[in-house]
Amino acid sequence: MQLDPTRWLVSLAGFTYDWIITREWMRIMLCMFPAALMISGIAFAWWGRSQDSRALASWYMQLGEEEIEGWEDAWAGGTSEKVVSDDGEADEPAFSLAAPESDAESETNAEPGESASEDDNKISPYADMLFRRVQELSPSDRSQFFIAVSLAQKGAVKEGRAMLEEIAPHDGSGYKPAHAFLFWILVGDYARTKDMQMFPLLLHHIEQAQGATRLPVQILQLGSELFWELARSRDLDNFRAGELSPRQLNDAQKSLNLLRRAAEVEPKLNLEVSKRARFIGNQIALDEANEKAVKVFQERLQEDPSDDVSRLGLAELMLGNGDVQGAEALLQKQYEKDPNDKLARGLSEIYRFRFHQSIQTDNGVYARNAQLLDIALRYDPSNPMVVQDIAKLARMQGPASKEMIDKLNLFLAEGQATTLTHAWLAEAYLLREDFKEALPHLEQVVTREPNGAKYLNNLAYVLMELHPERIEEALAYSQRAVLISKTSQPNADYYDTLGSIYSKLERSTEAIAAFENAVELDKTRIDFRERLAAEYRRQGNEDTAAKIDQVIESLRKRAAEKPDDSNSLESTATSTLDSPSYPKFNSGQAETASPNVSEPANSDDPKSKKTTSSPNEAIPPEPASNQDPNQAGDQGVAA
User: What is the pLDDT of residues 257-312, one digit of tens each?
Assistant: First the structure.
């Protein structure tokens, strides 16, 4: 028997029809009318109430917006914390002409939106109440944002962050102002901890925040610094040389874009835009920034010829564009009328720049006009950058003289030195094989620059040599140096130091792993292989040690056939002083030790590189008292 589906459908249709025509619909509708009327009334009342709530919420929101008018342009202005280390752009030769302002000057000369008072940057209790009412009546991201900000400003940072993270997630896109304020909160944590693991989170939030229509200048500047720091960290050597990889160039361009946006609000920032555009070769941004910055500074000087800050800014632009004489004349003319510390620092920096321009090499012979540094020092004896360059000269000529070390120590005692001065002193003592004197300076550098891998490595080695009781501390420093170097470019010397420390701790397995990493990174270093063979012998593995000895013997034969042409101390130092193809500037901060101080060639053994020189050559000669400073650049001094 076969079933016919159509018969079932016909039967269902017939049943439905019969059921409908047999009902007493009029009676049913009369009975349901009151219920329908009641349901309609409830629905209408609910709709009306929701309309009233939205209207009321809109009114509260309008009142709240009026109460905080202008707040979004200033909410980041009250902080004193910085996201980047004190060096700013330490890896670029720093020729900033601006002298640091005193506290009194910064208070009286503060510009609108630059250092607003703490109260001006807080959401008022009245505005907070209005936004809470909005959130109760008609929740929105914007009202939740203001409530979260108010909580954070009152000290309930944890609760405020939790509310912000709901509308600005760490792993996605959300309300853009909330991303910005989360970035601002996280920046404070980063400034305190220097935790590099926070970098991706900070970059995520600043990228998500960029679409906001109104971002405080400080947020844009900090975001710009972060991307600049990221570009530096990817490959420090390439960054110093101005040869950026595509990824570095992309990060640097993001930094530039944020800074250009900040300059739209604060035109004086076009000076910094000009520097970075020049550094990455963005000619369009450079021309635009130069034009805007020159216009701003010239207008300010016309209004107030005694405006030294604008005069220094204009001189720095001229210097950046290669007009050294014009920059010097601009400052010298005003200095003759009204000599002051700011103009003295600017002229000092111009002569320091001329010193860098004077550096030349001819068939391996190194020459520079050291007298220009003396002139720079006479204009401003407190300029730490001049002392640092003098220290670099000492390094180029081998172990620093006692006179040079005394000069640097005096500078430290006067409280004028930067982190880099400690770094140079540490290196000077290392070159003199005086580890005991180098130690406190290395500790100072690591304290101020906790992510400086080279200093961590040198400190680890010196602790291992001098203080066996601090070997665990040395191990921690060495491990950090290796870990940090992995993020940019692994360093064979750091693994070698780590292996030496493990060997001291009799942890042969870990020592072998470290030495093998060092050998893998630099297969030409005989000393790495010697230490690796020694560790295998310690484990009783004579066969492997013997094979390593054979490779060592082969390397020695090759070295005997071909003279060693590895970088010497002088050539290494010269690279740090070579005149740049175009001037580079930083934001006015003194150059610090951000990893621009190289350890000796064998960084686990500072004694492996030793040179000698005449102590009297370490300090540049004092120019004659009747010498015209403008003529000094024509007199070369051979090394």
Answer: 999 999 988 898 999 999 999 999 999 999 999 999 999 999 999 999 989 989 99
- Per-residue pLDDT tens over the stretch 587-612: 333 333 222 223 333 333 343 332 22
Q: Is the full-model pTM beyond 0.70?
A: no
Bridge partner list, 325:
none
Which residues, 6 or more positions from 139, have their beta carbon under 8 angstroms from its beta carbon? none
Distance CA 368, CA 356 (A): 8
Q: CB pairs under 8 A, 24+ apart, for 251-256? A: 251/227, 252/227, 252/228, 252/276, 252/279, 252/280, 253/280, 253/282, 254/207, 254/227, 255/223, 255/224, 255/225, 255/226, 255/227, 255/228, 255/231, 256/224, 256/280, 256/282, 256/285
Distance of alpha carbon 217 from alpha carbon 263, whole angstroms? 8
DSSP 183-240: HHHHHHHHHHH--GGGHHHHHHHHHHHTT-S---HHHHHHHHHHHHHHHHHH-HHHHH
- 472-481: Cβ within 8 A, 24+ apart: 474/501, 475/501, 475/502, 475/505, 477/446, 480/453, 480/456, 481/453, 481/454, 481/456, 481/457
> Which strands make up the sheet holding 365-368, listed edge to edge?
360-362, 365-368, 637-638
The residue type of 585 is F
Q: How far apart are the first and last CA of the chain?
A: 114
Contact between 64 and 130 under an 8 Å Cβ cutoff? The reply is yes
Burial per residue of 319-349, b for 16 or more beta-carbon CB atoms within 10 angstroms, e otherwise = bbbeebeebbebbbebbeeeeeebbbbbbbb
**Residues contacting 255, CB < 8 A, separation 6+:** 223, 224, 225, 226, 227, 228, 231, 276
17, 19, 36, 512, 553 from 28: Cα distances, Å: 18, 14, 12, 93, 108
The pair of structure tokens assigned to 223 is: 């975001």
Quickly tell me which residue has 């963005």 as its tokens: 282
Determine which helix (DSSP H) or strand (DSSP E) holds 19, and give its type and residue range.
helix 5-21
Integer Cα distance of 85 and 593 in angstroms: 10
| Residue 392 structure tokens | 């670099």
Tokens of 87: 């060096």
Q: Which residue has the tokens 């009546």?
A: 137
